[in-house]
Amino acid sequence: MGEPLRVGVVGAGAWGTALAKLLAERGHEVALWAYEPHVVEAVRRRRVNPYLEGVTLPGELVVTGDLAGAVSGKDVVVSVSPSQFVRDVMQQAAPHLDADALVVSASKGIELHTLKRMDQVLVEVLPAAVMERFCVLSGPSFAREVAEGAPTAVVVASRDEEAARRVQRAFQTPSFRVYTNRDVVGVELGGALKNVMALAAGIAAGLGYGHNTMAALITRGLAEMTRLGVAMGADAATFSGLAGVGDLVLTCTGGLSRNRTVGLRLGRGERLADILRDMQAVAEGVKTAEAVPELARRHGVEMPIAEQVYLIVHEDKPAAQALRDLMLREPKPEEWS
């Protein structure tokens, strides 16, 4: 399964911590960078990250607050910061990357003020040679279940097929199966857009609706994701795979989904500010829901579910009225293009 590598994981939220644990147990030499000093202290003292309570981290896993030290001299650097902070964090990391480092993005979101995917953000802050072999990792993978060793399948995409295969070998374990793909745009968008649909699914559940409504949201949400993806240069088939429908089903139905949880509470009538104040971790869909309607307008794509999610989350539209407006739209054929 390949030689041990030196790996730096940038971002010690639940997902970054789960990946760092996986890679350390895989036999790699792993350094996990945490922005918060209390996270560094907690891992060093208790071998537990507060963002992933109940999961004991291996003693071989090094945690540090030194970003330069975490990425310098590393064969692989995994970028896992929240999407709105990726630009700033990786800009600081860039001068310390080895010339032949392989950068893997595992953040799922759209940068709000630019409407750019993570690959588009990183191409502006990382060396061109590094970006030639850039990879993105996505798919249906709750951090806690990965950390606990539940069988999981994900996809790694790169325009450089050998780079994708290197990441595949580096991450593959008996419980973590990695497929390769060349569609960076589709894999990036699948991971970001599904969070908006998970908000919608949570809202529907919060309103008290059941399986019929959930099936409709997932199916038509996938149609919206695919339309926008194709308009932005993605392969439609990608949305039928792990980064598309796989991650969509997981986040729309799974109790561990932060975005579904936010939607659930919104559907029950709670205020967004109160919900976010209670949450320790980031729900990427909240910011992505702001970006997606504008992306859709720019590309001439109709995304009625995403539009209503934006109105509920950011314009305080009553959830019941939003659902009614969706259902009473002009009848039309079922189309995916």
Q: Which structural class is indicated by helix and strand composition?
A: alpha/beta
Task: Kindly report the name of the CATH homologous superfamily of the largest domain.
Answer: NAD(P)-binding Rossmann-like Domain
Count the domains.
2
Count of beta strands? 8
CATH topology term of the largest domain: Rossmann fold
Residue-averaged pLDDT: 96
Low-confidence stretches: none
Strand content of the residues, in percent?
5-15%
From the alpha-carbon coordinates, what is the Rg to the nearest angstrom? 19 Å
Question: How would you describe this protein?
Answer:
- The protein is α/β, with parallel strands linked by helices and 337 residues long.
- Strand 2 (29-33), helix 2 (37-46) and strand 3 (62-64) form a beta-alpha-beta unit.
- The chain has helices at residues 14-25, 37-46, 67-71, 86-93, 118-122, 128-131, 143-147, 161-171, 184-206, 211-231, 242-253, 258-267, 272-278, 284-298, 304-315, 319-327, and strands spanning 6-10, 29-33, 62-64, 76-79, 102-105, 135-138, 152-157, 176-181.
- The chain has two domains: 6-182, NAD(P)-binding Rossmann-like Domain (Rossmann fold, 3-Layer(aba) Sandwich), CATH 3.40.50.720; 185-327, Orthogonal Bundle (N-(1-d-carboxylethyl)-l-norvaline Dehydrogenase, domain 2), CATH 1.10.1040.
